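Memo to structure team: turn this sequence into structure tokens by end of day. - J.P.
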Amino acid sequence: MSAVPTPKGKQRREALLDAAEHILASSGGSELTLRSVADAAGVRLGHLQYYFPSRSALLTALLSRILDTSLERVARLAAPPDGDGITALLDGVLADHDDQALVRLFTEVWVMAAHDGEAAEAVRDFYDRYAAHVTELLDRQGAGAPRDDARQRAEVFVMLMEGAALFRSGVAGRRSTATDARLRRTLHAVLTGVDG
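Reply from structure team:
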């Protein structure tokens, strides 16, 4: 049985994960080593290994934190206290594409998932829960569509939005005002079910 971490221990662990996240977003997964994280955090390697005994343990914790944080944001966007949830979700997720560090971070997460079975499972679980939040939003918005249809529309929304992140951020394409307007109309049609 492991000891319950103290508040100070939790704070130290989060600081180490902050350093790891910064390296992943700025330099990529190949530069994410226990030594580089210890150096970036300004601690001895042994200190880091107290919290994360291996690179795998560090990556698992980092991936969990990145995906959980993003999923919490999706959940908030998909459940606004008042107003149009579809517009709030569209605006919020499209605005995330302006955050270059976030897009680079997710690009690295996708690369990790392509090469690591545990990472791939965590990413699949993340997208499953992301689509579930969007499905619940569609149910609440009263579109009246069968649950399977709402889930399919939610999954298409997630697919389009994630691909759009690569293009709109400049990683794989260039943003244009006309394409952005078409993307917004397409995403809105997918979410509202007016696409047939």
